[in-house]
Amino acid sequence: MSYDIHIIRGSESDNPEDQISAAEWIAYIESDPGLQRIVSQNAAFIQAKLSSASADADEGQVLSWCGGSISASFPKKPVLAKMSQIAKYFDADVISDDGDVWRISEEGDVRVD
Question: How many angstroms separate the first and last alpha carbons of the chain?
Fold first, then answer.
């Protein structure tokens, strides 16, 4: 099982028309009270974490946008559940480094297709 998980829209993440734009990701973060943007000087990465108001917040769990997809390393169940919500919003898939498509329940349980 991979430990880097990605939210990718479309069959080819290299297709610019399918990529999740930085503006879309920022707008999503700002609209979701369950996320808090992490301010960074590096514009190539736009990061968010579960908001501190969330009982599931974990300082080490970060969602990072880069190059048209959103990724998390070693995500725990609360982050996996949030990734599922985000993927649904963007009509995207949650995919492992190995290329497996993950189906994630609201509780963060994973089923690999």
Answer: 12
